[in-house]
Amino acid sequence: MTAPQLDAEREVDLARWRRAVVALWWLPAAGLVLGAIVGVLFSFRGATNYKASALISLGQPTSPGGALVNSFGTNPRAVSQIVSGAAFQAQAAARADMRPSALRGHVSVAQVGSATGAGAARSTPLISLTVNGKKPGPVSAAANALAHIVVEQTTARYVGVKIATFNATLKSVNDQITSVKKRLAVTEAAFNAAKHLDPLQQLVIVGQEDNAETRLGNLISQQETLQQQLAFATQVESAKIVEPAKSVKAAAHSRTTSLVIGALIGLILGAIVAIAGESRLRRV
After folding, report:
1. Which of 95, 72, 206, 227 is nearest to 149 (CA)?
2. I want to staple 143 with a disulfide (CB 3.0 to 4.6 A). Which of 65, 72, 245, 251 is the partner?
3. Rounded Cα distance, 103 and 100, in Å
């Protein structure tokens, strides 16, 4: 018999609440209007904020033997430690013409498209570095400054030595190619002018020309290899900024959403006040 009694009491309560809301309808209506007004006013409170995100590739350096080199520079957590450091934030703030305190708590780092499975070990981490603030210019400048600092402090240092070595060797090879081409031109001119010489002297000139062409071919092959290694070190191994930061307006309080939520809360509070007021009047 307990369950039917509870159901009956619940039905009586619901009917009483419905009568109270109908009798004091102006209270929920007033709560609806006041809630909507408060919601709209709340939407005006939020100041305009801006955010700027830079996309960074940490790179994947390799050893001279081709094996992957795992270091702090390829660890996404290292980026978070770098950009949250007071010294680096002070450098970025100076470049962006803003106070360092404006960056504290307004810099976030997230890994983009983190790989899982067998290919995760060989994937190149992509990092999104975001700065929030109230002025669009300094916000984007600070984000780009921090991105450059990340590049300088991670794989760019190690790979920079390789790039410098490749550039120096490539310059030497280019100089040798230029020298051999000059000698080859002289040899060809001497061969064209040596038709009146005896066959033995002509054979000597032909041998010198063959040696110069062989050396030129080897140097060109070495040049191609160095160019490929340099491109790989620059584009794959080294950290770089894939997309620079640009300020956009951050998502603020939606006026429509604030109005609807405020009106709903006001309606509920008005209904509660109506039910409580009706119960008190009934007791009186």
Report:
1. 95
2. 245
3. 6
For residue 102, the SS3 value is helix
Question: For residue range 200-222, what is the model confidence (pLDDT) as tens digits?
Answer: 666 666 677 778 888 888 999 99
Please report where in the chains the tokens 């080859």 appear, as a residue. 184
pLDDT value at 50 more than 50: yes
Q: Indicate the helix (H) or strand (E) that contains 69.
A: none
Q: Is 39 exposed, middle or buried (0-12, 13-18, 19+ CB in 10 A)?
A: buried
Does the fold of domain 159-237 match that of domain 50-156+240-249? no
50-156+240-249 domain in CATH 2.40.30?
no
CATH number of 159-237: 1.10.287
Residues 194 and 201: beta-carbon distance below 8 Å: yes
- Taking 3-state DSSP, the helix, strand and coil percentages for the chain, each rounded to the nearest 5, stand at 70, 10, 20
Per-domain boundaries in the chain: 2-46+253-283, 50-156+240-249, 159-237
